[in-house]
Specification:
The complex is a heterodimer of chains A (321) and B (285).
Chain A: E1 11-14, H1 15-29, E2 33-37, H2 41-44, H3 47-52, E3 57-59, H4 64-76, E4 80-86, H5 87-93, H6 95-103, E5 110-114, H7 132-137, E6 143-145, H8 150-162, E7 167-170, E8 175-177, E9 192-194, E10 200-204, H9 207-221, E11 226-230, E12 233-235, H10 239-249, E13 252-259, H11 264-275, E14 280-285, H12 295-301, H13 306-319
Parallel strand pairs in A: 2-3, 2-4, 4-5, 5-7, 6-7, 10-11, 10-13, 13-14
Antiparallel strand pairs in A: 1-8, 6-12, 9-11
Chain B: H1 11-32, H2 37-41, H3 44-54, E1 69-72, H4 78-88, H5 128-141, E2 148-153, H6 160-171, E3 177-183, E4 186-187, E5 190-191, H7 192-195, H8 201-207, E6 211-216, H9 220-232, E7 239-244, H10 267-282
Parallel strand pairs in B: 1-2, 2-3, 3-7, 6-7
Antiparallel strand pairs in B: 4-5
Helix pairs in contact in B: 1-3, 1-4, 1-10, 3-4, 3-9, 5-6
The chains are: A alpha/beta (321), B alpha/beta (285).
């Protein structure tokens, strides 16, 4: 994407739907890929896999802890399990199991939590996962992914299967703004850098990448040249991309649909502090639970949309010495 | 079912083996200065039966794809497992005194990063049965006839995850899976019946569509017969072997004593325990 003032927002399919498609592709390619879900397969889209491969798919009922443990046991027996649920239930209810059956023994098991963030909308905070990045990044050895759109989600599901070790991906409920095309390639731990703006770097993941592009266009109209870094992999973080951005731009904004503690911003800040300290501003959910509302209303009310990213960018640019 | 090298035919020999294992357990926990003697001593006959009679395994080929799986979900009972693995020949007996020491593969709770012969890393109670289900499902997918055994403590069954797992395994009639309950009646804080009782335990498993079998967990003949039948899968559903045991079994001052859940014996206590066990060995017929 070029740093032009014109930016056309085009919406694509939800990343959860792209996951469902990619999982079926994986199933056709590799008989060791098996699937699990905890009574949400129609929502996570693992139902597509369940339909095509009923003999290697188990719905465990509403029992996330058991599902994660079973996935660990399957992985210890040479299978490549993909276990899905809402991110909030998978990570929060399955956390001890993610630790004991997966992270600690380094099981080759994959987890996909849908309905990440507050953009799930009307169902409200009990279903809105705003802590999953922090929880999953805290587990040693885990790969943590949060793709922006259908193309990056699909590609990264394949990368998860190829990676030998535990992986987590957050997917979203709402349709995602298209950021890529079918020919774009993605690697775990390698950020996608968009533009070469040297005034500020906007480092975002998930839905915030789409908003970051909108902010980039707005800022360009004001003479502020921003680069957008899609940090689809929160862990392992692309520290080189962060360091380069810090050196070349001298100011960074992080943007995530997650609490400000322990997520993307915290990780980026650490990398910045270790490599090239520069001012930072943080866009995220500020120490609160959200509420019911439409996705657009919520993203606006909780200050996660493009104007808030642009405002953070203006602020951080002013802080540059 | 075990291979020629590890199979012990004589019941008397098995009893002697169990006695010897108890001595090693007391010594190694004493040397470590910390650990869980009570729940290690209660599970000795169960492990003896598994590793020397019931399980299909091969010391020369520890990662044999069709080996039976054993998961010690009550990870704190690992000294007994380490001794069983040493007696079977999987690990060097010289390692036993390194229990819980820095750099030892015999970690405070089972850690398969350091001891790959272990099927799972455990220690956070409630995790083992779900992992075992995963292994048992993989056996079916791969059309292998290995059996998966999981051992829990009775107190451990207060964990909700066990019942999520029990519901799943019962519903799916997983006859290639056996849960062994080391029912020693005591948990860290006291008697299980005084904390949150599990009674009626057999009825609970029956209602989850398991085949419960209640036995004396120190009667080797009963243990061998029951685990052998469970392994055959003849019930057409998973078996829950409720093995009634005595916490601290074999060491009189530890038996049924809540204080010996997680305390290491002092050198004089080790000596007294070893003496008592050696005396008991003389009575084995």
């Amino acid at each position: 994407m070029a740093t032009t003032a014109k930016f056309e927002v085009k919406m694509g399919m939800a990343t959860r739907e792209a996951y469902g498609q990619a999982l079926v592709e994986l199933g056709r390619k590799n008989p060791n890929v098996v699937g699990l879900d905890a009574d949400l397969m129609k929502s996570t889209y693992s139902s597509k896999f369940a339909k095509e491969f009923p003999d290697r798919f188990w719905t465990v009922g509403i029992a996330e802890a058991n599902m994660v443990g079973i996935a660990g046991g399957l992985a210890m027996s040479g299978k490549i399990p993909f276990a899905s649920s809402f991110a909030v239930f998978l990570c929060d209810k399955g956390y001890d199991q993610l630790r004991m059956a997966v992270a600690y023994p380094r099981s080759n098991a994959k987890f996909v939590g849908s309905h990440g963030g507050i953009s799930i909308g009307e169902d409200g905070p009990s279903q809105q996962s705003i802590e999953d990045y922090a929880l999953m990044c805290a587990l040693p050895g885990f790969v943590v992914l949060s793709p922006a759109d259908e193309f990056s989600a699909r590609a990264l599901v394949h990368r998860m299967a190829e990676h030998d070790g535990p992986c987590f991906m957050r997917t979203g409920r709402a349709k995602a703004q298209i950021c890529y095309g079918p020919n774009d390639t993605f690697e775990i731990g390698k950020a996608k850098v968009h533009g070469s703006g040297k005034d500020v770097a906007i480092i975002a993941c998930g839905f915030e990448v789409g908003y970051a592009f909108q902010a980039q266009a707005t800022l360009a109209g004001e003479g502020i040249n921003a680069r957008v870094i899609d940090m689809h992999t929160l862990k392992p973080l692309d520290e080189a991309a962060v360091s380069t951005a810090a050196k070349e731009c001298g100011a960074i904004v992080s943007a995530e649909e997650h609490v400000l503690e322990g997520g993307l911003g915290a990780q980026v800040a650490r990398a910045v502090a270790l490599s090239h300290p520069v001012p930072m501003e943080f866009v995220g959910v500020n120490n609160t639970y959200a509420e019911s509302g439409t996705p657009d209303e919520l993203m606006e009310k909780y200050h996660l949309t493009a104007p808030y990213i642009a405002e953070a960018a203006r602020k951080v640019v002013k802080r540059k010495k | 079912m075990s291979t020629v090298e590890t199979k012990v035919e004589s019941l008397t020999e098995l009893k002697r083996l169990a006695n010897r294992m108890r001595i090693e357990i007391v010594k190694m926990i004493g040397a470590a200065g910390s650990g869980h003697p009570g729940g290690s001593l209660s599970e000795v006959e169960l492990l003896t039966a598994l590793y020397f009679r019931v399980m299909k395994h091969d010391v020369k080929n520890p990662k044999w794809a069709d080996r039976d799986r054993f998961i010690l979900s009550k990870g704190h009972g690992c000294p007994a497992l380490y001794v069983a693995l040493a007696e079977a020949g999987y690990i060097d007996k010289k390692l036993l005194p390194t229990l819980r020491k820095l750099g030892s593969p015999l970690q405070g709770h089972p850690d398969k990063r350091f001891l790959p012969v272990l099927e799972a890393s455990t220690g956070s109670l409630g995790n083992g049965l779900s992992i075992g289900i995963g292994m048992a499902l993989a056996a079916k997918l791969d059309k292998q006839d290995y059996h998966t055994f999981v051992m829990v403590g009775d107190g451990e069954l207060q964990e909700g995850q066990d019942w999520e797992a029990a519901m799943f395994a019962g519903f799916h009639k997983m006859a290639n899976l056996t849960l062994i309950v080391d029912n020693n009646h005591i948990q860290l804080d006291g008697w299980t019946d005084e904390i949150v009782s599990l009674k009626p335990l057999a009825d609970k498993f029956r209602s989850f569509d398991w085949e419960p079998v209640e036995i004396d967990g120190h009667d080797l003949e009963q243990v061998i017969t029951t685990l052998g039948r469970a392994r055959s899968g003849s019930a057409g559903k998973p078996t829950a072997v409720i093995a009634n045991t005595v916490k601290g079994k074999g060491v009189s001052f530890m038996e049924n004593n809540v204080e010996w859940h997680g305390v290491a014996p002092k050198p004089d206590q080790v000596a007294a325990a070893v003496k008592e066990l050696e005396e008991a060995a003389k009575q084995i017929r």
